[in-house]
Amino acid sequence: MADKHLSSQFDSELNGVSARVMELGGLVESQIRQAIYALSHFSLEAVEQVALIEQRVNAMEVEIDHELASIIGRRQPTARDLRLLLSISKATANLERVGDEANKMARMVKSIIESGAARSLPSSDLRVSADLASGMLRKALDAFARLDTKAALAILKEDDLIDKEFDGFVRKLITYMVEDPRTISASLDLLFLAKAIERIGDHSKNVAELVIYLVKGKDVRHTALDEIETTLLQ
User: Fold this and answer.
1) Can you tell me the distance from the alpha carbon of 168 to that of 174, in angstroms, rounded to the nearest whole number?
2) How many CA atoms does the CB half-sphere of 135 hold within 13 Å?
3) pTM of the predicted model, to two decimals?
4) Interatomic CA distance for residues 212 and 96, integer angstroms
5) DSSP 42
6) Which residue has better confidence, 119 or 109?
7) Which of 164, 155, 151, 162 is nearest to 136 (CA)?
8) Cα 144 to the center of its chain, rounded Å
9) Residue 99 — pLDDT band, cuts 50, 70, 90?
């Protein structure tokens, strides 16, 4: 009976820290939404909201790390339970970094607004890749919650779309800078903003890879997609 009670407590702790990760994910998603709104409407108010949410994201990451350290220290988990806790730790780190990238987006938007060059540059073109990155994160969190490896694989494939959007946008910015050197400063802000969006996609991809690691016990980082598909069929 005592062993069953301890097992039940452990399960409750695992469920609790997993729920905290989803809560963190929700906060980060709201950061991205505010950053995209700031970009679309050149809103300084939205920029400030991103910074405020960033403080909560950072605090929650620290809290989850403490919870994980406490669980591992007291329970000394093995096998799948240990993989789950390690995956939660890595997912938390990636979510915090997504928050950092959203904050970078907001800072770049503020710089563009203050430069006065916002209307003369193709900032609206970034909305497509920003929406793609936001959608990837949402789907990655859903796949993590449901341990859905098929959804995780689809996310890995989707990351290529954001990379292509980034490459196309860079080419367009270069054209703007060559044609009008006065736009170079603001164009560089947009370039850093585009890179932040691409990095959000990369971190979302990392979360998707953790789903496969958790379910299959195999680290698929730096693995070709066809090899990952083979792993999922095994």
Assistant:
1) 10
2) 14
3) 0.89
4) 21
5) T
6) 109
7) 155
8) 13
9) very high
Closest CA relative to residue 84, chosen from 134, 11, 29: 11
The string of pLDDT tens digits covering residues 188-228 is 888 888 999 999 999 999 999 999 999 988 888 888 887 88
Is the pLDDT assigned to residue 1 strictly greater than 50?
no
CA-based angle 201:128:209, to the nearest 5?
20
Conformational region of residue 43, where left means phi above 0, alpha means psi within -120 to 50, and beta covers everything else? beta
CB 51 within 8 A of CB 103: yes
H helix intervals, the chain = 2-41, 44-75, 79-115, 126-146, 149-179, 184-216, 225-233
Alpha carbons 234 and 226: distance in angstroms, whole number: 13
209-229 burial code (b ≥16 CB/10 A, e <16): bbbbbbbeeeebeeeeeeebe
Inter-residue contact 96 to 122 (CB < 8 Å): no
* Cβ atoms of 154 and 125 closer than 8 Å: no
Break the chain into its structural domains and give their ranges: 1-233
Tell me the fold of 1-233. Methane Monooxygenase Hydroxylase; Chain G, domain 1 (1.20.58)
Q: Give CA–CA dist 102/105, Å, rounded.
A: 5
38-69 pLDDT tens trace: 988 889 999 999 999 999 999 999 999 999 99
- pLDDT digit string (tens) for 133-180? 999 999 999 999 999 999 999 999 888 888 888 888 888 888 888 888
